[in-house]
Amino acid sequence: MSISVSIIEDDAGVRSLVADWIAHDEGLTLVSEHESVEGAIALLPSHRPDVVLVDINLSGQSGITCVRQLKAAMLETQFVVFTVFEDSDHIFDALTAGASGYLMKQTPREELLASIRQVYAGGSPMNSYIARKVVQWFQKKPQEPSRGRVEDLSARELEILRLLARGLAYKEMADVLGLGIGTINTHVRRIYHKLHVSSRGEAVSLFAPFPSEPRGPDRPGSK
């Protein structure tokens, strides 16, 4: 059974060359050629090819936009991006849009034709460089959650953070500042919220001056 293929490419030279490769392969049938996203969206749903080769850098709309719109209407069709872009953003935008493969335009003739067969059979053709990019993306370590800045605290909150850094209990802080324990609790919650932390240790770790803070007479055990 022949595999039907369409091409979406606005470079006439590239489109003609790839069309010729497909047309002269016994197992493939060239169904249509399109030079714009608009033309492809209008006609391809009626052609329903098995595989579509799509360039990204098309005049007008992006090829990725084209894949996203057509895939929704052509669930059985496999889309393979055929492009010069090899950066991670384009790769993952294309894959999340619905592309099943991602090939570079310098892909040799035999490899391109084999990739069409591969994607039709359920594979996801990519050259080794693109595959490595995908692997690296999945291997990235999760980023540390962002922290707030001590500089964003009010004068009172900074004063309380300083006392937290010195190890005072809430009652001790209340006595030193002449405030109620409930008020100290409220200030501490606000400090945690502003610094995006959930414990005294995390808050204190952001307070650079605290290691050199002297032990004042209000700290139990001080002389």
Description:
- The protein contains 10 helices and 5 strands; from the N terminus they run E-H-E-H-E-H-E-H-E-H-H-H-H-H-H.
- It has about 220 residues and is an alpha/beta fold.
- The protein folds into 2 domains: about 5-140, Rossmann fold, CATH 3.40.50; about 150-210, Arc Repressor Mutant, subunit A (Orthogonal Bundle), CATH 1.10.10.10.
- It has a 5-stranded parallel beta sheet, with helices on both faces.
- Strand 1, helix 1 and strand 2 form a beta-alpha-beta unit.
- Helix 7 packs across helix 9.
- It is rod-shaped.
Topology:
Layout: E1 3-8, H1 12-23, E2 28-34, H2 37-47, E3 51-54, H3 63-73, E4 78-83, H4 88-97, E5 101-104, H5 109-120, H6 128-139, H7 155-165, H8 170-177, H9 181-195, H10 200-205
Parallel strand pairs: 1-2, 1-3, 3-4, 4-5
Helix pairs in contact: 2-3, 3-4, 7-9, 8-9
Question: What's this model, at a glance?
Answer:
With 223 residues, the chain is an alpha/beta fold.
- What is the molecular shape? rod-shaped
Fraction in beta strands: 5-15%
Main beta sheet strand tally, sense and closure: 5 strands, parallel
In CATH terms, the superfamily of the largest domain is Response regulator
> What structural class results from the helix and strand content?
alpha/beta
Q: How many discrete structural domains?
A: 2
Q: For this structure, what is the CATH class of the largest domain?
A: Alpha Beta
At CATH's second level, what is the architecture of the largest domain? 3-Layer(aba) Sandwich
Counting DSSP H or I runs of 4 or more residues, the number of helices is: 10
Give the SSE order as H and E letters: EHEHEHEHEHHHHHH
CATH topology of the largest domain: Rossmann fold
